[in-house]
Write a structure and sequence with these properties.
The chain has 115 residues and is mostly beta strands. 7% of the residues lie in helices and 41% in strands. β7 and β8 form a beta hairpin. The longest helix is centred in the N-terminal third of the chain and has 8 residues.
Length: 115
């Protein structure tokens, strides 16, 4: 019930302060760094108090792909979480970013595309 009320007052997205809130930065090797920060998804709040490192799966040898760093709200009864993920793209000669999942039980907020 509280989430439905908060959804009326807060738009989905990353809170603007600090300016680096949930910023995704390239790291050494196959990792990215997501800076600490806060966000709102459908009236539910997410707070990351420390920087997080996420691993990106290696690309195919002959085709590129676009992976997406997302903040995912999962409302399935077995999960009930909001967390950071790297959604693997589809390898192709001309890769396209994956469509964000936005259903009743799962809603993704895209933070960065990785080519």
């Amino acid at each position: 019930m509280i989430a439905r009320i908060l959804a009326r007052y807060f738009r989905n997205g990353v809170f603007p302060q600090p300016s680096t809130c949930l910023q995704v930065l390239q790291q050494e090797g196959m990792t990215v760094l997501v800076k600490e920060g806060a966000a709102n998804i459908n009236g539910r709040q997410f707070y990351e108090e420390t920087d997080r490192v996420l691993t990106v799966q290696a690309a195919e040898a002959d085709l590129d792909r676009i992976d997406t760093v997302v903040l995912r709200l999962n409302l399935e009864l077995s999960m009930l979480t909001i967390d950071l993920y790297v959604v693997r793209g589809v390898a192709a000669a001309v890769p396209q970013p994956q469509t964000l999942t936005r259903t009743v039980s799962m809603w993704e907020l895209g933070l960065a595309n990785l080519f």
